[in-house]
Every structure is written in C-alpha cells, then in structure tokens.
Design brief:
- The complex is a heterodimer of chains A (421) and B (329).
- In chain A, 65% of the residues lie in helices and 7% in strands.
- Chain A is of the alpha/beta class and 421 residues long.
- Chain A folds into 2 domains: 2-41 and 218-417, no CATH class; 44-205, 3-Layer(aba) Sandwich (abc type-2 transporter like fold), CATH 3.40.1710.
- In chain A, helix 2 runs antiparallel to helix 8.
- Chain B has helices at 43-50, 72-78, 94-103, 109-122, 138-150, 168-185, 196-202, 220-225, 241-248, 287-300, 315-323; strands spanning 5-14, 17-27, 32-36, 58-63, 66-67, 79-82, 156-160, 188-193, 205-210, 213-219, 231-236, 253-259, 278-284, 305-311.
- In chain B, the strands form 3 sheets. Chain B has a 6-stranded mixed beta sheet with strand order 6-7-8-3-9-10, with helices on both faces. Chain B has a 4-stranded antiparallel beta sheet with strand order 2-1-4-5, with helices on one face.
- Classes of the chains: A alpha/beta (421), B alpha/beta (329).
Chain lengths: 421, 329
C-alpha cells in the first residue's frame, strides 16, 4: 500500500514538472517527426521530385535498353500500385545498395527481349540488401514474379500457337491441326510448361554486406523504435534528477522517519519510474502508429508477436529504471546528472543505433565494440528484430538477456550505493 | 509515568569524525525538551538517529518503550519529524502534500481528511490549502513543513530548527502551534535550536550540546542559576595572582579566574584577548555591585582596562560560560 502511495505521489510530482514532461513526452515526439520525415524521404531510394507519386521508388537496371520486351516489363512494374521505376546503371545501383541509400534493385539481363523472342528462358535478378524489410521485399518479389509469370504465360501461349501455325504450314494436308481440342491441348501444354519452366524466372540475390545486422532500413516509421530507445534511456537522467532533488530537499530523510522499510521506499521510487517509462514507450509508439501515417511518414507495425513487443518494452523500461537509480546513486551534483549523464546517454543512444542504423556503426570496429557495451544497442536490436524481422520471443531472448544483465548490474550498483540523505 | 524517550550513550561516527559522542538523556511524556547548541554541535545527528534516519555507531534509545534499533517501525509510528529542510513537494498543494504524508502512516478516507483539516487549522493555512506551495512565502512553507510532521498525531514530535529563515510573524505562529500542541494535546516535543530565546520561551528542560556531547542538562531556571548574578569579563593589560585573589574576595563577587587565551584569541570569552591583554572572568552574585567593586580595585592598583563585558544571566551566557564560545559563532 505504501509503495502505491509513494508511486502516486511521484507520478503527481513528475506530471507537474514541465521540464520532465518535455523530456519524457514532448521531445521524443518532436524528434520522431523530424527523423521519420528524414527517413521516409530517403526510404525507397531516389529522391526524384514526384511529390504526387507516393509509391516507393524502385531502381531498375535495364541491360537490354533497346529491347521491346524489356521496356514492356519495366512498364508493367511501373504500372503497379506499389512501385515507381527509376532507371539506373548497375554500378550506381550497387553502390547505392552498399551505402543503404536503397534497399533493393532489379536487373534486366542483356538480350532479354531477343532471348524471349527465341523462346529462350531469361532470368530477372532482384538484388536485396541483407537487412531489407522482409515484408516489403516479399511484396516486391511477388509483384516481379507476377509480371514475370504473366509474361511467360503470354509468350509461351503465343509460342504454342506459333508452333501449331508452323506445323500447319509444313503439312497443309493435316486438316485436323486447328481443331479446337488440339488447340486446347497445345495451350494447356504451354500453360503447364510456363508454370514448371517459365520463360521469365525471378532470382533474388542478397549480396554479402560487411557488418550485416538484422536492422531494417525501412520507411519513416522505422525511426519509432530508435527514438523510443533513445528517449526511454534519456528519461533515466530525468528520473535521477527527480530522486536527487528529493534527497537534496530532505524529503527522503523525512520518509525514512516514517514507518516504511528501506525496500518499500526504494521500490516506491522505482515503480513510478517504471510505469512512466512504459507510458512513454506507449506514447511514442502510439504516435508512430497513429500520427506518422497521417503525415505520410510510413506505417508502423509492432511485428508478428505482440508478446515479444510487450516483453521488449518491459525489459527496456526495467533497464532504464535501473539506470536512473544508478545515476541518482552515483551523481554527486545536479550538474553531473543534467550535464554529464545526459551527454553520456546521448552518446550511448547514438552508439546504440537510436539515431543512425547500427549496421553503419558496426562497420567501424571501434564503434562496433563500444556499441555492444551500451544497453541501447541491445534494446534497438530487440525492437527491430520484433518489428522489422517479425521475430518472436525466442529469437529476441539473447538481446533481452543482455538487457537484463545490464539491468541487474545497474540495479545492484544503484541499490548498493543508494543514499537516502 | 515512564519517559517517552530514553537515550542511552549514543555515539555516531562518520569516518574519522565523531558527530555525537555518548549522548544520554530522557524526555518525559508531555514535556517540551530543548536541544540547544551551535551549528554542527550534533543536534541534527542526534535527532536523525532517534528518528531512524541514521543508525547509531553505538548506544541506543527507547521511544514509547520500544527500542529504536529492534522495533524501528513501531517507534516510527509514534514519532513525527519536522526536519530542518523544507522536506515537501513544492509543485503539489499543501493539502496534496499532507494527504501524501498522512497516507504513508496508514491514514485514509475520512480520517485522513479530518486530520489534514485539523493540522491545516493548527498552522493557520486552511484558506491556502489548495495552493501550490512553491508559491508560498518562506514562513508559510515552514508551517506546512510542521503540519506534515503532525498529520498522523505523533506522541513525540521532533522539531529540528523549525524557524530557520522564517519571518517574525510566521515564527510567532510556529511558537503558538508548538505551545498549543503541547498544552492542549499533551504532545511531547523535542525542539532543537541555536536560538536561545526560542528554547527559553518553549522548553521545560534544555540539554546544551557542543561538539557531540551534552555539557549541561537541566531546567532553564537551574541552568541560568549556574551563573548566579551574572558574569563579568574584564580585559586587562597586566594580571597577577594577587589581583585575581583580591578580586575573588570582593563583595558581590563569587569567583574570579584568569582565562587562558589561544593564539587566535578564540578561547577568550567575549573580549578579544591578545598577548598584550589578559582576560579575567568574574562570576558575580550581583553583577551591578560587583562591577563597581572590581573597577574600584583596578583603579586603586592603576591597571589599564582593555575591555569590559557584562553577561546577563541567560542561556546564551550559560553556553558562553560553559564552552567559551558564542551560540551563533
């Protein structure tokens, strides 16, 4: 009961603290809009000024520039609801993929049209970044495959009719050649063949990219987990300041003279922080899910496993709370909390991939090592695994385990060094 | 009736520093007990140990018959603490603060509301109860600070320097509240201060504490009585044993002695002793008569006077007499 009384009081105090509310709720949303805007502007790849066209741009390397079939294939893609074709050369597309400016591109091979005309099979290559969003990649592959199948079927049917024409021409006496049942049988044969050995096949290639992670470079909504992680951990400094001020004011001393155990008092300080960070996560994700789509900055999903998302959020909140307790225990002045801790948390947030993708950081060995030493990187990883890769609870256990290890260390140091006076 | 508080040889050490060094005293039920001493004397540390904020290095105490170390929660339910700091939540209203402090003592519902209304009346803040306290004056904040220590109706209330930084009007209000709580409700109170006027006004008995030790404990009347008719301190250019002896035998003089001065003169009471000046302390049976006799003797022996102080018989003088220091040094 006392823990709940302490919790209610702390929540009331924090809610009335404009600075804390700014840090905990307002700034994350502002940052989210900025970063989501930047990310969605970059998301599909090129930045051609087609303001009215909200489709995702798709680089296509046309190695058969004069081929009519190639052009027709490209037109088919461009007429799809999802993608807008941007022509590119192969080297440029490859570099853009490596630099994560784009996450996939399509290659139409040389002699595409000529080979098809001769009935020779051709291979469309879809190159995808190893960290590309699985769902979006599947959408792309389905569309390309659909166009390829349609093209195959059409060409093979035509080819069948052509073959029958040739048979008729070669044997004019064969009166039965164009009988309906024979045409049907020939069409069915070609249809089956187009399914078994389509003329146009689609191959997905995933190049090996150094520093590959499970990160996805998605539309604007992909900024949401990063911002959530950054600001949930930044809240640790607000929490530490709140505890520091209470200690400085003597309120903790007064509470120590009340019939409360020290454990109750400590739990009564931690529970409101935990609840607040959970609310903060909810606010950030709710904003991402409800408002960002309205601003045209992508659509946010919480992945295939809501339980995994809930667990990740809970563990991150526990870790941030423990960090706040530790900072309040170690800091000897308000300056240390507001200045030093904040600066360190921003750096840790940066290293942890809250502001830029972790796989970019991991390409630099020193930063890669440092990133693994901050809980933010494990938190970001867990969120992205759940949200972008559709990971379930089991798959994120390593990241959650690391976060719990961090939490335990922070908690142990925080409780051991906690000063009530 | 057994005492509400019994303190037995309590010691508190911080690293190399001994803040409280073997303090023992008792407080009777319904008594207002003063702890008088300068800043840093050990008053707050003593209170912190008694209220469970600090653990004593050695020794213990009983409050309401419960040992503070063995039954801390029972003890804490009997006491209230009004700390020296404004231990409140400034962004909340006075009522919200009091509701919170009452709730952690298990008060709720109608009982909590009645108690909060009651203490708001005691500190005369009923009409401002719903205002955020960061907008209060310093004195009003102090009054809420006191109310927060009263809301659960403790049997023993610790008031730790409750008037620091308070305007005269609020100070009087606080005095009235303390006296009302004691006289009308029988609340036992331990009042620490370095203002002797407050202690003289409010307390039945006083323990004078300095450098972590109680150097005197008695009623104010008896403590002041230690000085007899007052203390006279005379700074002289030259002093010898014969002069001291002659002074001791003067009418209206109880005793006279030479005060040793440290190189910085701090040991010298009141007047500034220097290598060129010696300080003589005279305990008088009647200060007016004694001063006339002393001046007559010095004039007769043609000894130059460098300073002269007459200490009226009060707690300030008692402290000066006992420690050689002023209360507010």
């Amino acid at each position: 009961m006392n823990i709940w009384n302490l919790t209610k009081k702390d929540l009331a105090v924090i809610v009335k603290d404009r600075g804390a509310v700014l840090w905990i709720f307002i700034l994350p949303v502002v940052f989210l809009v900025i970063f989501a805007g930047l990310a969605s502007a970059q998301g599909g790849g090129s930045s051609e000024d087609e303001a009215e066209d909200t489709r995702t741009s798709l680089r296509v390397v046309n190695n058969d520039p004069n081929g009519t079939m190639a052009q027709r294939f490209i037109n088919e893609i461009d007429q799809s609801e999802n993608f807008r074709v941007v022509l590119s050369d192969e080297q440029s597309a490859e570099q853009s993929l490596e630099m994560i400016k784009i996450i996939w591109y399509v290659i139409i091979p040389p002699e595409f049209s000529a080979n098809l005309s001769e009935g020779k099979p051709v291979n469309i290559v879809v190159v995808t970044h190893p960290d590309a969003n699985m769902q979006q990649t599947q959408t792309l592959l389905q569309i390309i495959n659909g166009i390829a199948k349609d093209t195959s079927l059409e060409l093979q049917l035509l080819d069948g009719i052509r073959q029958m024409g040739e048979m008729q021409a070669g044997n004019p006496d064969a009166e039965q050649a164009f009988q309906a049942d024979k045409v049907m049988a020939q069409a069915k044969s070609q249809f089956d063949q187009s399914r078994i050995t389509p003329l146009v096949s689609v191959e997905q290639q995933v190049p090996v990219v150094e520093g590959k992670t499970k990160f996805t470079f998605d539309l604007g909504a992909s900024s949401v987990p990063g911002m959530a992680v950054l600001f949930v951990f930044l809240s640790a400094a607000s929490v530490a300041r709140n505890i520091y001020e209470e200690r400085k004011d003597g309120s903790l001393r007064r509470l120590l003279s009340a019939p409360l155990t020290r454990s109750e008092l400590l739990l009564g300080k931690m529970l409101p922080i935990l609840l607040l960070t959970l609310v903060q996560i909810l606010v950030i994700f709710a904003f991402g899910a409800l408002i960002l789509p309205l601003l045209g900055m992508g659509t946010l999903s919480i992945g295939k496993s809501p339980l995994a998302w809930v667990l990740t959020s809970l563990v991150i909140a526990v870790c941030s709370t423990s960090l706040g307790i530790m900072i309040s225990s170690l800091a000897k002045s308000e300056g240390q909390i507001s200045g030093l801790s904040n600066a360190l948390l921003w750096v840790a947030g940066f290293l942890g991939g809250a502001l830029i993708p972790t796989f970019l950081i991991e390409q630099i060995p020193t930063l890669n090592i440092l990133a693994r030493l901050v809980p933010q990187s494990w938190a970001t990883r867990a969120y992205y695994d759940v949200i972008a890769r559709g990971a379930g609870v089991v798959e994120i256990l390593p990241s959650l385990g690391m976060l719990l290890v961090f939490s335990a260390v922070f908690f142990f140091i925080g409780v051991r060094r906690f000063r009530f006076e | 009736m057994p005492p509400i508080l019994e303190v037995n040889n309590m010691v508190k050490k911080f690293a190399e520093r001994t803040a409280v060094n073997g303090v023992s005293f008792s407080v009777d039920e319904g008594e207002v007990f003063g702890l008088l001493g300068p800043n840093g004397a050990g008053k707050t540390t003593t209170i912190s140990m008694l209220t469970g904020v600090l653990v004593p290095t050695s020794g213990t105490a009983k409050i309401g018959g419960y040992d503070i170390l063995q039954d801390p929660l029972k003890v804490k339910s009997l006491i209230g603490l009004v700390p020296q700091d404004l231990a409140l939540y400034p962004t909340l209203s006075a009522r919200a603060n009091l509701n919170f402090f009452g709730s952690i003592y298990g008060l709720k519902g109608k009982e909590l509301k009645e108690r909060v209304d009651d203490v708001l009346r005691i500190v005369a803040l009923t009409d401002r109860a719903n205002q955020v306290i960061e907008k209060y004056s310093g004195g009003m904040k102090r009054r809420v600070n006191i109310a927060a220590g009263l809301v659960h109706q403790p049997r023993l209330l610790f008031l730790d320097e409750p008037t620091v930084g308070v305007d005269p009007q609020s100070r009087n209000q606080i005095f009235e509240s303390v006296l009302q709580l004691n006289r009308e409700r029988g609340m036992s109170i331990i009042y620490t201060s370095h203002y002797m006027e407050e202690v003289e006004l409010l307390c039945n008995r006083v323990a004078i504490i300095d450098e972590g030790q109680i150097i005197a404990l008695d009623t104010i009347k008896n403590l002041v009585g230690m000085l007899g008719g007052g203390i006279i301190q005379v700074g002289l250019k030259q002093v010898d044993d014969e002069l001291i002896n002659q002074m001791s035998k003067l009418p209206a003089v109880k005793s006279a002695f030479l005060v040793e001065a440290s190189p910085d003169g701090k040991e010298a009471p009141a007047g500034e002793a220097t290598p060129e000046s010696k300080m003589v302390k005279i305990e008088a049976m009647n200060s007016q008569q004694a001063i006339v006799n002393v001046l007559g003797l010095l004039n007769e022996r043609d000894i130059l006077i460098t300073s002269l102080d007459i200490l009226e018989p009060n707690l300030e003088s008692v402290f000066l007499h006992l420690t050689g220091k002023k209360l507010r040094e």
